[in-house]
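User: Could you go from structure to sequence for me? I need the amino acid at each position, not a summary. Structure tokens:
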């Protein structure tokens, strides 16, 4: 069985409204979005096209992010902070939750403040290391942005978001619970259906809510796939999309229905596939 952590992208309108609010009734009005660098171009593309999201993550690792410094003077040498310098980062509340605000360009940062403030420019990976364990919001109040939960930052830092999915084996005698999810992962299923359409070897796919007490994981999402092609290729393609889809019950496990999983009868008897390959008719028929 293969596993991918699932992180979601979402429309930032509501968070932008909150970020735009200021005390005493003041409100910032943001200019239309004009990408200032490659990171912002890939961010905008990824927000509209899920297949571009991994491109954004790759660019993020190479990019500089900007954030505010809430303390006093910062000792520098040729523009570089001296070792062991204490940095005080701000916190903003969005949707009732605290985030560290970061920005994809200096212009994006400048549009978010109404007075002169000190700021830092830091490589994204170094910044994520610095704020490890905290939730981050990229471009709060901006036209395009993204939430980074602490778990997603961890997956970026340890490389699991970019690498080969983890594998674990279900023992034959394992007792488990499986059934319909209380809330369907509609965004995930729609995106996986698009991926499976492009993979000729995928015949059909089911989703379920799965719990294996032996693993210590909470109940989560299981995608069972019938395919006669290369399983690693299928999981890589599906996992790239799953890693950035909104999933009510992460993580996402992938199971191959090849007659040996022990779950074929359950899916065939009790479930309706969310994906079934449509047969294409020829140009001529009798």
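Assistant: Here is the amino acid at each position, in order:
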């Amino acid at each position: 069985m293969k596993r991918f952590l699932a992180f979601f992208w979402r429309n930032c309108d509501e968070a932008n409204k909150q970020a735009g609010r200021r005390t005493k009734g003041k409100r910032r009005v943001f200019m239309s979005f004009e990408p200032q660098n490659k990171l912002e171009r890939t961010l905008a593309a990824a927000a509209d096209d899920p297949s571009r999201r991994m491109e954004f993550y790759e660019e993020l690792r190479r990019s500089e992010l900007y954030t505010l410094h809430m303390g006093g003077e910062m000792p520098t040498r040729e523009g570089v902070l001296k070792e062991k310098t204490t940095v005080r980062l701000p916190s903003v509340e969005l949707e009732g939750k605290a985030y560290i605000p970061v920005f994809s360009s200096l212009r994006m940062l400048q549009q978010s403040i109404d007075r002169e403030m000190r700021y830092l420019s830091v490589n994204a990976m170094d910044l994520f290391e610095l704020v490890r364990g905290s939730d981050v919001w990229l471009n709060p109040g901006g036209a395009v942005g993204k939430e980074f939960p602490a778990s997603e930052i961890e997956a970026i830092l340890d490389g699991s978001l970019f690498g080969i999915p983890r594998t674990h084996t279900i023992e034959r005698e394992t007792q488990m619970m499986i059934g319909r999810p209380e809330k369907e992962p509609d965004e995930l299923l729609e995106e996986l259906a698009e991926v499976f359409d492009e993979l000729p070897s995928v015949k059909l796919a089911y989703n379920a809510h799965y719990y294996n007490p032996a693993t210590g994981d909470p109940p989560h999402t299981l995608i069972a796939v019938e395919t006669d092609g290369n399983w690693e290729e299928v999981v890589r393609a599906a996992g790239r999309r799953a890693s950035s889809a909104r999933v009510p019950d992460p993580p996402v496990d992938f199971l191959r229905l090849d007659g040996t999983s022990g779950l074929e009868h359950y899916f065939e008897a009790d479930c309706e596939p969310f994906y079934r390959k449509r047969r294409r008719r020829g140009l001529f028929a009798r």
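One structural detail worth keeping in mind: The chain has a mean pLDDT of 80.
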